[in-house]
Design goal:
223 residues; 6 helices; Rossmann fold; 37% helix; seven-stranded mixed sheet
């Protein structure tokens, strides 16, 4: 049994990138923790109705995955900058000390969304082996509508080198993603059921399975 931490800048990131893998971890008896970094607030122009709906979506999704714990940092969405690293890193460090995650799934370092990029650097600052020796594996996941829209330059390319067969979990992944009604639209919108399926088929074809999720392995420590 492993302690697994799923890092999401915003609710739905985790399902887009890691949904099937989360379900597979749960079936294998691992402890799964969901860290949601940002939240939405009326001061940002979000209605009270929209805020309540978001919290309801989180509750439903948490039950469907059967997370062992959901942690919210409640940082206003779309506001993270480099200056926030000073506050984020100690919070993440403290969380790591409590949860002792062995496997971490985090945002892709070059996603188009600045929240994703800042979170990646914050997480990586808390994976040094001499301070966090329990961290054995760190993987970046791809997030539709963000990863594929990062600037097309070599240093930004998401290079998948780790694949998880989610064929037995794909239908439930789609079911969970549909809970985020405000985030889903019809094809050709990136976050559509059709596009999620297309990506899973594409990654599956490379891995030789029906459906797969792809990751970029950043760190792997075998003891």
């Amino acid at each position: 049994m492993s302690n697994v931490l799923i890092v999401a800048a915003h609710p739905d990131d985790e399902t887009l990138g890691v949904g099937g893998t989360i379900l597979k971890h749960k079936k294998n008896g691992d402890k799964i923790y969901w860290l949601i970094i940002t939240n939405i607030f009326e001061s940002q122009g979000f209605s009270d109705e929209r805020i309540k709906l978001r919290q309801k979506e989180i509750e439903i999704v948490s039950r469907l995955y059967d997370f062992d714990e959901v942690i919210k940092f409640d940082i206003p969405t779309m506001t993270l900058t480099d200056s926030d690293l000073l506050g984020l890193i100690p919070k993440i460090s403290k969380l790591f000390e409590r949860l002792k995650p062995e496997i971490i799934y985090t945002m892709n370092r070059s996603d188009a969304h600045s929240d994703h990029r800042i979170i990646f650097h914050s997480i990586m600052a808390c994976t040094k082996s001499f301070r966090f020796p329990y961290v054995k594996k760190v993987l970046m996941y791809e997030c539709l509508s963000e990863t594929e829209f990062s600037p097309s330059v070599p240093e930004n390319v998401f290079q998948p080198n780790y694949f998880v067969d989610i064929s037995n979990f794909f239908e439930k992944k789609i079911e969970i993603m549909k809970v985020f009604k405000s985030e889903m639209e019809e094809h050709p919108f990136p976050r559509s059921s059709k596009n999620i399926e297309a990506l899973a088929i594409f990654r599956g074809a490379y891995a030789g399975v029906e459906f797969a999720e792809a990751f970029q392995l950043i760190k792997y420590l075998e003891k």
